[in-house]
Amino acid sequence: MFIIVTRRLHGASGAVSLAVLVALSGCQAPSALEEATAEVRSRALALEGEIAEAVGDIDEARVRGAVLATAESPGASRQVFHVADGENSAVEIGVSFRARAITGGGWTYDDATVILCVRYTVEIDTRRTAMADLPCPDDHVAGQRGDGGFPQPVTLE
After folding, report:
1. What is the rounded distance in angstroms from the CA atom of residue 38 to the CA atom of residue 34?
2. Rounded CA gap, 113 and 136, in Å?
3. Which long-range contacts (CB under 8 A, 24 or more apart) does 13-19 make?
4. pTM score
5. Which residues pair with 116 in a beta bridge?
6. What is the 3-state secondary structure (H, E, C) of 41-65?
7. Which of 44, 80, 95, 109 could be cross-linked to 104 through a Cys-Cys bond (beta carbons 3.0 to 4.6 Å apart)?
8. Which of 139, 112, 125, 120 is nearest to 49 (CA)?
9. Cα atoms in the Cβ-side hemisphere of radius 13 Å centred on 29
10. Between vectors from CA 82 to CA 76 and to CA 83, what angle results, nearest 5°?
């Protein structure tokens, strides 16, 4: 934010204007890491809602298939890496989300690539959906170099 202060000085030769430009550094744009992290967290929350909607009104025999179909939908920027039957008649899937952000410009910029891995658990009988952080498999972190470098693991919070 910039503030321009103008003051009129009166002297023998008349009025003279003096302008002072003051730069305040209180406002700062988010870093690339913050932007990429916000993006993967947003996508993870969105998938939880998509799963809950997909399993809401179907019979129990089709819940597992609906969870997988939703998570693996074409064009989605995520990857399912874990599928299992959980405790108490539940389906568990592990999904990774990647994002890259670049901030700044000109002579300096900030570039970050992140990965977030989440376990979604859906109770088949109640259709209750929950999500939690899940450690990312090594091949997801080390084996997938993007333009922003190897992804930095982040968490839901």
Report:
1. 6
2. 14
3. none
4. 0.75
5. 97, 154
6. HHHHHHHHHHHHHHHCCCCHHHHHH
7. 109
8. 120
9. 10
10. 100
